[in-house]
């Protein structure tokens, strides 16, 4: 069965909102809908614009007969994984997290998030 524009608009696509330090306002994108991006002066305006951009993007894809990806399903991820590391790195991470006054788990999450942001 072919999905309609309303079917796609009712799916829960992840929306990313980032502040635009150069131009001001906010930039909104849908990671699962490649190239679907917009902006707004306020978060509220950016979200409203994002819904319009999403609908226009989906309509264009349907019109062109292109395949539309399904939203990424986060339910398949537990949020946990096991990682084996050298004992010396384990000690170093434990010492740094103790200095920061947080758990090693929180410290590693901080390092991963910081590194991931720097990559983008």
UniProtKB/TrEMBL annotation:
A biological-process GO annotation: regulation of DNA-templated transcription
Matches recorded under Pfam families: HicB_lk_antitox
Source taxonomy: Bacteria, Bacillati, Bacillota, Clostridia, Lachnospirales
Record-annotated HicB-like antitoxin of toxin-antitoxin system domain positions: 17-79
UniProt superkingdom: Bacteria
Protein's UniProt name: Putative RNase H-like HicB family nuclease
Organism: Lacrimispora xylanisolvens
Gene3D superfamilies xref list: 3.30.160.250, Met repressor-like
PANTHER family referenced in this protein's UniProt entry, alphabetically: ANTITOXIN HICB, UPF0150 PROTEIN SSL0259
